[in-house]
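User: Hi! I have a protein structure encoded as tokens and I'd like to know what sequence might fold into it. I'm fairly new to this, so please keep things simple.
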């Protein structure tokens, strides 16, 4: 030991009498040593050994889901709300295929997940006839490898143990990497743990802050100090704790309100805050091009700017991008294939902003106003969202919006609600994969209950997204998860309806855009669906603002008293 610095032991002493200590028992204990004691899964025989180890430990929390996609999305939402990991167990082959969409969402959203995947015995002589053969794969992660940060398969306990160690280190110490998946052989789980595995000690999971070089920080500070039309563009970085305060500190140091433009739907913190000159992309207009652009963890800053100004007007602009280290590249999806213009630095974003603020020189006069806010068009949805927001504010109900629902709903939320800190809004799914909203919202709400945040979890859900994973309601009811689920029920896949309109108009055809894009042929009774899972629900017209407000208050009272979920179906 040197002062307060310690190095964890690579090996530890063996406990006595370990003859009946299975590899799955070691795995459970090892995960607990690293703070992972909650597991979610749809049961499968390929991890029955680990399942048995879990149910025989009173310190373990087990959550059953009705689908692997639900289990992964639940862990996704849980992490976004808490920064902690739930371990997802996934059944061999068929479970991997079921989980693929949710893993893709987590990859695009850059949310770290730890997923352990059962695999039939790699040793052929250990396999049961038929079933073990179709549940064994030498390349079990072929369907999902392109959107995982680590995919490991080993043929023995020793290799698997090190795969687990590497996965834990990856998801706990790196940033923005996405899910790690590790195969656990069914036969290994049910075998006595090897002594050298039992002797493996815990690993160091402290996350180190990586800093931008001081010279580059001073350069950025200089450009910000002399720029007359500075602009900060943010995307993924808005999740980071302390980000909003760091932005405010930088503006204070410069003695100006630097315009901040939030892009994409990864974020949760900025939305629309006219007091700070923070705007969403869709609510901003530019009179002229900015002369200095600072892009923070933004995939395609130039692409976003092209929606507001002519790129020829950016020829003289200074462009600096700062990205969080650790973004994994993949040839499967092209979301990381766009190179930012100008110079690119890698480092912790909040640390960069705080350090830059120390070197800037305050502006002596107000900067010219070149970016303006525009209101989104009035709509029935926006009016309903205003009613919902006003109801919470008037009743002094602290909320956290754990899901944005859809692009249309998300824009209405961001145009109405004003959020105080990064965690007030958890955004959307990252990958555009439907089915995320309901299970991810439940995961977030469970984390909030564990943390005793004093906030009400509120989730906005599109009806189309909801119908992908409705069996999530079983988990909500079984675990008594307190959450207000608000379904914006427009009876259609809105995005597909709009695209159908565009194509038919371009081709000058009178084709109805509502064919195979709506639920007109068989409307869904969401109230009966909720009652089938023993969940209370109410329906209200989107145009009845008074009844909507009263229904929200009744739902909040029920959730507070019963610690149970409640569904409001807003008929649009």
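Assistant: Happy to help. Inverse folding works backwards from shape to sequence: for each of the 572 positions I chose a residue that suits the local structure. Here it is:
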């Amino acid at each position: 030991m040197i002062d307060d610095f310690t190095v964890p032991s690579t090996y530890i002493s063996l406990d006595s009498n370990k003859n009946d200590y299975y590899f799955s028992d070691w795995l459970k204990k090892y995960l607990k040593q690293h703070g992972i004691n909650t597991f979610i899964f749809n049961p499968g025989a390929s991890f029955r050994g680990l399942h048995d180890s879990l149910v025989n430990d009173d310190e373990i929390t087990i959550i059953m889901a009705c689908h692997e996609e639900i289990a992964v999305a639940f862990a996704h939402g849980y992490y976004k709300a808490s920064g902690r990991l739930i371990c997802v167990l996934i059944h061999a082959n068929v479970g991997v295929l079921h989980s693929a969409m949710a893993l893709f969402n987590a990859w695009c959203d850059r949310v770290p997940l730890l997923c352990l995947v059962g695999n039939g015995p790699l040793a052929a002589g250990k396999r049961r006839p038929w079933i073990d053969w179709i549940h064994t794969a030498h390349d079990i992660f072929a369907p999902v490898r392109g959107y995982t940060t680590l995919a490991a398969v080993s043929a023995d306990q020793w290799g698997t143990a090190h795969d687990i160690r590497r996965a834990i280190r990856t998801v706990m110490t790196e940033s923005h990497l996405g899910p790690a998946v590790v195969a656990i052989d069914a036969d290994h789980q049910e075998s006595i743990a090897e002594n050298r595995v039992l002797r493996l000690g815990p690993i160091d999971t402290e996350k180190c802050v990586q800093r931008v070089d001081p010279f580059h920080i001073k350069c950025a500070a200089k450009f910000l100090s002399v720029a007359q039309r500075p602009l900060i563009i943010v995307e993924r970085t808005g999740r980071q704790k302390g980000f909003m305060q760091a932005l405010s500190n930088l503006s204070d140091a410069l003695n100006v309100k630097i315009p901040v433009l939030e892009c994409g739907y990864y974020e949760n913190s900025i939305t629309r805050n006219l007091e700070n000159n923070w705007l969403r992309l869709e609510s901003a207009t530019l009179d002229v091009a900015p002369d200095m652009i600072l892009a923070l963890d933004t995939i395609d800053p130039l692409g976003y700017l092209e929606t507001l100004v002519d790129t020829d007007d950016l020829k003289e602009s200074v462009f600096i991008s700062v990205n969080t280290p650790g973004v994994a590249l993949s040839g499967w999806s092209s979301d990381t294939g766009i190179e930012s213009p100008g110079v690119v630095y890698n480092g912790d974003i909040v640390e960069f902003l705080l350090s830059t603020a120390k070197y800037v020189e305050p502006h002596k006069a107000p900067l010219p106003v070149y970016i303006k806010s525009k209101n989104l068009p009035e709509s029935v949805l926006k009016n309903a969202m205003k009613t919902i927001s006003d109801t919470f504010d008037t009743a002094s109900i602290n909320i956290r919006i754990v899901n944005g629902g859809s692009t249309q709903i998300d824009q209405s939320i961001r145009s109405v609600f004003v959020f105080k800190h990064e965690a007030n809004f958890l955004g959307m799914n990252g990958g555009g994969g439907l089915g995320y909203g309901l299970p991810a919202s439940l995961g977030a709400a469970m984390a909030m209950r564990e943390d005793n945040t004093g906030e009400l979890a509120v989730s906005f859900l599109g009806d189309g997204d909801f119908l992908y994973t409705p069996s999530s309601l079983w988990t909500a009811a079984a675990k008594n998860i307190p959450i207000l689920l608000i379904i914006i029920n427009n009876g259609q896949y809105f995005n597909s309806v709009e695209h159908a309109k565009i194509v038919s108009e371009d081709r000058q055809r009178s084709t109805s855009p509502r064919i195979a894009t709506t639920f007109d042929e068989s409307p869904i009774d969401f109230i009966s669906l909720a009652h089938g899972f023993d969940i209370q629900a109410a329906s209200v017209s989107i145009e009845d603002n008074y009844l909507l407000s009263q229904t929200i208050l009744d739902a909040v009272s029920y959730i507070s008293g019963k610690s149970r979920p409640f569904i409001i179906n807003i008929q649009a």
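A useful reference point when you look it over: DSSP finds 20 helices and 19 strands in the chain. Feel free to ask if any position seems puzzling.
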